[in-house]
């Protein structure tokens, strides 16, 4: 009987490990594909993965100057946005506390605002850097797209597009506006 129990435990262990690895792969592979930017060919035959810059039809030379800055921006913006998200979670915990501390809530709010200012500064820096590379026509088209995406033509927060709250930050991170 003990011998049969050992076989059962070994088989159960192997089955659980296989199931675990299968579930992990099922989640890891699609997530990895989603993180890798698509690399469609531009009109110039060069790989320009950013939909915004594809729309602007940047030249190969422009893309070579823009891409490193854009990669650095995306990485910094992702970190800063993650920090703001974590601060918002902390704020929610402070508010949900049975005895909320208004002073702690106000301090956390200031941290969140500082993080949001950091993200906005990153976006502004990226826009100023791109202005140096784009032609006058591309620049005009870029700012027209930003105005349309951000809702700047109607009342509302700068760089936020309606309920999806995307705007230029989403566009520069390569996130389609229809998500």
Shape: flat
So how many helices? 6
CATH topology of the largest domain: Four Helix Bundle (Hemerythrin (Met), subunit A)
CATH class wording of the largest domain? Mainly Alpha
Q: Mean pLDDT, as a whole number?
A: 74
Decide which structural class fits the backbone: mainly alpha
- Architecture of the largest domain, according to CATH? Up-down Bundle
Give the tally of structural domains.
2
Order of helices and strands: HHHHHH
Proportion of strand residues: under 5%
Helix content: over 70%
Low-confidence stretches: 14-25, 38-44, 156-165
Would you count the extended β strands for me?
A: 0
Most strands sheet: none
Question: Can you give me a brief rundown of this structure?
Answer:
This protein is mostly helical. The chain is built from six helices and no strands.
Question: Care to describe what's here?
Answer:
This protein has six helices and no strands. With 179 residues, the protein is mainly α. The protein folds into two domains: 1-36; 41-172, Up-down Bundle (Four Helix Bundle (Hemerythrin (Met), subunit A)), CATH 1.20.120.1490. α3 packs antiparallel against α4.
Question: Which short descriptors sum up this protein?
Answer:
single chain, about 180 residues, mainly alpha, Four Helix Bundle (Hemerythrin (Met), subunit A), 6 helices, about 0% strand, flat
Secondary structure elements and pairings:
Layout lengths: L1 H34 L15 H6 L3 H37 L5 H30 L4 H15 L16 H6 L7
Helix pairs in contact: 3-4
